[in-house]
Design goal:
Oligomer: single chain
CATH topology of the largest domain: Rna Polymerase Sigma Factor, Chain: A
Structural class: mainly alpha
CATH superfamily of the largest domain: RNA polymerase sigma factor, region 2, helix turn helix motif
Number of domains: 2
Helix content: 55-70%
Largest sheet: none
CATH class of the largest domain: Mainly Alpha
CATH architecture of the largest domain: Orthogonal Bundle
Shape: elongated
Distance between the termini: 19 Å
Strand content: under 5%
Number of strands: 0
Radius of gyration: 19 Å
């Protein structure tokens, strides 16, 4: 389910060239980071409208401050920190606070026979229930399970310790599993209670 894998491994030479003022390298770096930053913001805010505005601001900040990137962390970790700060700043400017905790309502999901559950259907069910997770669980689940970052990378990106990341991830997985089984109880029979 990782649709951003190519973005995670941005070549150090590209980052170095961008830091040195190479405009083509900077354009390439921003083009690689854009979909990742946009996704992070959509996950953090739950608002496509806010995501578009904030993504533009983050891209401007990355371009403006790339010379401050010291290379001790991955550029994606650095970009994530800029993204988190810009989301917080956006909500302070616009609404005087943090992004609203959106609790998406869980749409009616038709029950289906266990043999009808394929990888694509399972992925759609996960996406449906993902939206209803609390903010931090949603963020950790997206970074770890959907984007494929390791717990230690997620911890660096979010400024948490790895144990806290694993706790949020465990809780998110448990909620999604429970919701899938609630809407599709035949899966318990087909795959057992340990699913």
């Amino acid at each position: 389910m990782n649709d951003t894998g190519a973005v995670r491994d941005i070549p150090g030479a590209l980052v170095g060239a961008a830091r040195a003022g190479d405009e083509l390298a900077m354009e390439s770096l921003l083009r690689l980071l854009y979909p990742l930053v946009s996704r992070w913001i959509r996950v953090k805010t739950g608002s496509p409208e806010d995501a578009e505005d904030v993504t533009q601001e983050v891209m401007l900040r990355i371009g403006k401050y790339i010379d401050r990137f010291d290379g001790r962390a991955k550029v994606t970790t650095w970009a994530y920190q800029i993204t988190a700060n810009e989301v917080a700043d956006h909500y302070r400017r616009c609404s005087g606070g943090a992004p609203p905790e959106h609790e998406a309502s869980v749409p009616a999901t038709p029950a289906m026979a266990a043999e009808e559950i394929d990888d694509r259907t399972a992925a759609e069910l996960v996406k449906t229930f993902f939206e209803a997770l609390p903010g931090k669980q949603r963020e950790v689940f997206d970074l770890a399970d959907l984007q494929g970052f390791r717990a230690s990378e997620v911890a660096d990106m979010l400024g948490m310790n790895a144990a806290t990341v694993r706790t949020h991830l465990f809780r998110a997985r448990r909620v999604i599993r429970k919701k899938i089984l609630e809407f599709n109880p035949e899966l318990v029979e087909a795959y057992g209670r340990d699913m």
